[in-house]
């Protein structure tokens, strides 16, 4: 099969030929119909992460070998299934849960694969949706698309569950108490949609780009703050009408985490989601006096995926903006994402 793959970091993806998967055991092979392009694909293409303190983590440290087709927001049509893969229908379309765990640790047995320390994620450790086909190791990782739009549904596999899981970490918060979202890209807009599905009415969005701030307001944010320059914490506090109980940082760089933490009220919580990277310096006694918490949030579980799909089916989840691109434009799309030219999510589709 053909795969748009990272062959060398920071160099254009190449369309290469890789072995067409043949399913064994419980495996299911799906022909990719739609694949959302997440900023994590861009980090993957670059090949390293800023861990703060002058340290970096490379893809090799994460067990990745190249060439590898990225893409973890996949909707695909089942084309083949192993002899022990029951409950899937050949020809039907499914959202593929990508954050596959080892399958036998306590977290995997609890369907919390995203907490497994031996992940074999699709689009990271195995070929993802930038390839023609993907392999799900078991039907339990598949959720039927039904009559949802496949391009929008593909985004649920990462952005949808990531924002769902991050929002769970700050709830319960009364619907009229502000929740601050730093970053109004794919995740930030998905989070506004999710908060609206939960009936939340006070949402402050922070972004550097005026066009992204406008997109956030269009999506339903109640205020938008310029995240550039000095005094961002104070600008957030002013826009929110006071210090806040919840900030979710979809950028999570040294400057944004400091601004988000600085805007917290007593008892407030900062959730780290983005992986721009850097570090946050905390006063330990200050943490106690402010009863503050800082918590990392790593994607979501297949249970979260089912919950997000149910919300979408109920009609409560507004659609975030998605723009379809032919898969052959994968390189251009990565560049557009890198340069901030995508509003919401770009989704690669078969031409
Ligand atoms: P995106 O490129 O679609 O959006 C990023 C947005 O952040 C853009 O609108 C950009 O203008 C804005 N931004 C950049 N720097 C900023 C700053 N200093 N202040 C305010 N706004 C700023 O990216 P995305 O797909 O939404 O992903 C966001 C981040 O989340 C990425 O780092 C991605 O790798 C990460 N991510 C994490 C998880 C997880 O499980 N924790 C899951 C998916 C993605
Ligand atoms: Zn992602």
From TrEMBL:
Gene3D superfamilies on file: Medium-chain alcohol dehydrogenases, catalytic domain, NAD(P)-binding Rossmann-like Domain
Domain Enoyl reductase (ER): 8-348
Enzyme Commission identifier(s): 1.1.1.1
Pfam families in the cross-refs: ADH_N (PF08240), ADH_zinc_N (PF00107)
GO (cellular component) term, any one: cytoplasm
Protein name stated in the entry: alcohol dehydrogenase
Uppermost EC category: oxidoreductase
InterPro entries per the UniProt record, alphabetical: ADH-like_C (IPR013149), ADH-like_N (IPR013154), ADH_Zn_CS (IPR002328), ER (IPR020843), GroES-like_sf (IPR011032), NAD(P)-bd_dom_sf (IPR036291)
């Amino acid at each position: 099969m053909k795969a748009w793959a990272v062959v060398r970091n920071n160099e254009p993806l190449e369309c290469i030929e890789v072995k067409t998967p043949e399913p064994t055991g419980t495996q299911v092979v799906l022909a990719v119909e739609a694949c959302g392009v997440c900023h994590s694909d861009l980090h993957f293409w670059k090949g390293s992460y800023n861990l703060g303190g002058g340290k970096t983590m490379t893809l090799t440290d994460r067990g990745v070998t190249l060439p590898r087709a990225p893409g973890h927001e996949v909707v695909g049509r089942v084309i083949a299934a192993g002899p022990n893969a029951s409950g899937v229908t050949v020809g039907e379309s499914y959202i593929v849960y990508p954050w596959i765990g080892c399958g036998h640790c306590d977290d995997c047995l609890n369907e919390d694969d995203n907490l497994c320390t031996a992940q074999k994620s699709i689009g990271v450790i195995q070929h993802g949706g930038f390839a023609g086909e993907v392999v799900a190791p078991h039907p339990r990782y598949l959720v039927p698309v039904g009559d949802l739009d496949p391009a929008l549904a593909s985004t649920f596999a990462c952005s949808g569950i990531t924002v769902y899981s991050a929002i769970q970490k700050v709830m319960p918060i009364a619907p009229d108490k502000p929740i601050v979202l730093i970053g109004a890209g794919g995740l930030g807009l998905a989070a506004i949609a999710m908060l609206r599905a939960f009936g939340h009415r006070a949402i402050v969005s922070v972004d550097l780009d005026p066009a992204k701030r406008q997109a956030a307001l269009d999506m339903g944010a109640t205020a938008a703050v310029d995240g550039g320059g000095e005094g961002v914490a104070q600008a957030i506090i002013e826009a929110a009408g006071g210090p806040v109980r919840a900030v979710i940082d979809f950028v999570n760089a040294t400057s944004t985490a400091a601004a988000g933490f600085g805007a917290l009220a007593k008892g407030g919580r900062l959730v780290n989601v983005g992986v721009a990277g850097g570090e946050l310096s905390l006063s330990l006694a200050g943490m106690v006096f402010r009863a503050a918490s800082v918590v990392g949030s790593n994607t979501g579980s297949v249970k979260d995926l089912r919950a997000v799909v149910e919300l979408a089916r109920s009609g409560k989840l507004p659609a975030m903006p998605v723009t379809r691109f032919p898969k052959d434009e994968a390189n251009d799309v990565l560049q557009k994402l890198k340069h901030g030219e995508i509003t919401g999510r770009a989704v690669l589709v078969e031409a």
